[in-house]
């Protein structure tokens, strides 16, 4: 349940258009609800501004479908990450307007789209192979009400490709930089940008990249300042963090 929904509910009780029993029925599952295999946090939107996200990996199709069904009783926007087509089809059975972002592997139910905040989040990849993680970050940030620009395949192996977009980098409110292999790109972007950089190591690379560990260690050890590093392949976490940063900057700039 979002803050505006709770406010409307309480105002309805005060005005007499909603009975106390009706209000209790709507509030019964706050702050959380157990459905056996999952305990759904219905109060997260009130605390964080965004509802709980469904991480689909490791869950059965029926489990994901059941969680989404219960979340929809609170009329919230829903992100289901690491979702395949089979999960998308199951979610559409309970919400026909669900949208599938195949590259991002995210199902989105966006019942109350947020107006874009001030500022722009720039999502950059070193290579095309990093696109799934980058799109996960981009879609997450967009659903959270942010303008997102994309700049793909501009890694350090051809640094001129990145430098051709200096203006875009300099005007971004926050950049999400996604890279595998040696993971050098976030350091370069941070050296060019006056804004925070969220670095995302990916598992892209040959054997000695150790499934993204080499890229992560490079990013953690960056000499450039202003970099925050999320876990390997965690595009969702990067997009969420970037959205929080942009929300803070938007408020400071006088936006919503």
Write the layout of secondary structure elements.
Layout: H1 3-15, H2 20-27, E1 32-34, E2 39-41, H3 44-48, E3 54-55, H4 61-72, E4 78-81, H5 85-94, E5 99-101, E6 106-109, E7 120-125, H6 131-143, E8 147-151, H7 159-163, H8 166-171, E9 174-179, H9 185-192, E10 197-201, H10 213-220, E11 227-229, H11 235-252
Helix pairs in contact: 4-5, 6-11
How is the main sheet built? 5 strands, parallel
CATH architecture of the largest domain: 3-Layer(aba) Sandwich
Query: Helical element count?
Result: 11
Give the percentage of residues in beta strands.
Answer: 15-25%
Spatial order of the strands in the main sheet?
A: 8-7-9-10-11
Kindly give the count of domains: 2
- Helices and strands, in N-to-C order? HHEEHEHEHEEEHEHHEHEHEH
**Mean pLDDT over the full residue set:** 88
As a percent range, the share of helical residues equals 40-55%
Strand element count? 11
**What is the CATH C-level name of the largest domain?**
Alpha Beta
Account of the 3D structure:
The protein has 256 residues and is of the alpha/beta class. 41% of the residues lie in helices and 17% in strands. It has two domains: 107 residues, no CATH class; 133 residues, Rossmann fold. It contains eleven helices and eleven strands. The strands form three sheets. It has a five-stranded parallel β-sheet with strand order 8-7-9-10-11, sandwiched between helices. Strand 9, helix 9 and strand 10 form a beta-alpha-beta unit. Helix 6 packs parallel to helix 11. The protein is globular and about 65 Å long.
